[in-house]
Amino acid sequence: MSTIKAGAAQGGDHTGENTGFIILISCVATIGGFLFGFDSGVINGTVDGLQQAFGSTKAGLGFEVASMLLGCAIGAFFAGRLADLYGRRSVLLIAALLFLVSALGAGAATTSTMFVLARVIGGFAVGAASVMSPAYIAEVASARYRGRLATVQQIAIISGLFCAFLSNYLLAKTAGASTEVLWAGQPAWRWMFWMMAIPSVLFLLLLLFIPESPRYLVVKKRKDDALKVLTKLYGTAEAQSKLVEIDASLSADHHRPQLSDLINKATGKVRPIVWLGIGLATFQQLVGINVVFYYGAVLWQAVGFSESDALLINVLSGALSIGACIITVLLIDRIGRKPLLWIGSLGMSVTLALLVWAFSSGSLVDGHLQLPGGMGTLALVAANLYVIFFNVSWGPVMWVMLGEMFPNQIRGSGLAVAGAAQWTSNFAITVTFPMLLAGIGLAATYGIYLASAIISVFFVVKYVHETKGKELEQMEG
């Protein structure tokens, strides 16, 4: 049975469904993903500027780059809880405001402390958007195309990364280097941060025009408001039945959602679905993808490319990532989530193995790694194939699954814990990379990411269950 037919069988007649409106409000939510990507990627081109402005050591630089991720872990954790109290849309509005504050503050920072504070504020926003945007999409979209719409979130994230890389490249090229003065007497690296203010303001304004999640409204006993939203989304005929389904999924447990819901009352243990969410969130980072995103310029300069060429390679990686995510949009509601995950894990394992081989063949010349013969080309091709495999699989699919896999009663709390785990792992990988690079070298460092990719294959095969075609009310904890 095809995905569309399965969804139709579960959801009934879709003739009254306002698909265009659902897509429109989902796209507004994904601007949070765009800013998530932009804020994550903009640091890539500013590393030289930070070192020059603040005189950072290797450890200090690692903390400055990774400081946002501390805020992300906190933002992701509290966003899930705040969303249960005040609504998904309200949390996204707060995130939009924090994105704007961070963009202006990071670019204007005159000390390392000021910079770290601005980036942590941006981290609050990124963490909140990372869990709330896919959750909002999952809660307004029909099961028959929910995966495709939620995958658009990853396209938005990669588009944000791509735009950050492109903006960094163009600004640095215009100024002559990221550390050279560009406009108003300020160096290009500061303008790289200030550029993020534009999409931040757009996100803030557009969020004022989207409705609250109907599932949140039912949880808050605002059934009349929920029915109005459901009618606008699915039409009068289906709205009432949707309301009954949502209410029934919550009827066995009328108390306000709380973190203790993640504990199985009968056994006193954490629910297996929570461990699965933490596993998915953690493995997405342990494969080392954000080392490519955050330190791409440093990485490619370390193997012999100029700053300009390294920034241009980042633009290429961003474009390939967008293309890979488009493939996922076409496949995720057809073949499902689980097959994409294990295919991606296998592909990343092979390409990371090639990177380790290429890097292990190099030698240090004046502090820089020089690769013999065609090993530099092999490293470049393998790295971009690795990015493609990640963005066909773990990049979008992990966020899709986190947004839809938890039952209604524990969705906010489950997202809080899994999101915090994701960003804590991201922080650990990011802050350790400069030290590992200086201590054990690129080959051994990437060997750690390779081991994680191999383990993730077995994790998916043994523990991950398919969610394709299921309504959120069918999810079991």
Structure description:
The chain is mostly helical and 477 residues long. The protein has one domain: Up-down Bundle (Growth Hormone, Chain: A). The chain has helices spanning 3-11, 19-41, 47-54, 58-86, 88-108, 112-140, 146-175, 188-194, 197-206, 214-219, 223-234, 236-251, 272-286, 289-302, 307-335, 337-360, 375-392, 394-404, 411-439, 441-463; strands at 181-183, 186-187, 363-365, 368-370. The strands form two sheets. A two-stranded antiparallel ribbon has the order 1-2. Residues 1-13 have low confidence and may be disordered.
Task: Give the topology.
Elements: H1 3-11, H2 19-41, H3 47-54, H4 58-86, H5 88-108, H6 112-140, H7 146-175, E1 181-183, E2 186-187, H8 188-194, H9 197-206, H10 214-219, H11 223-234, H12 236-251, H13 272-286, H14 289-302, H15 307-335, H16 337-360, E3 363-365, E4 368-370, H17 375-392, H18 394-404, H19 411-439, H20 441-463
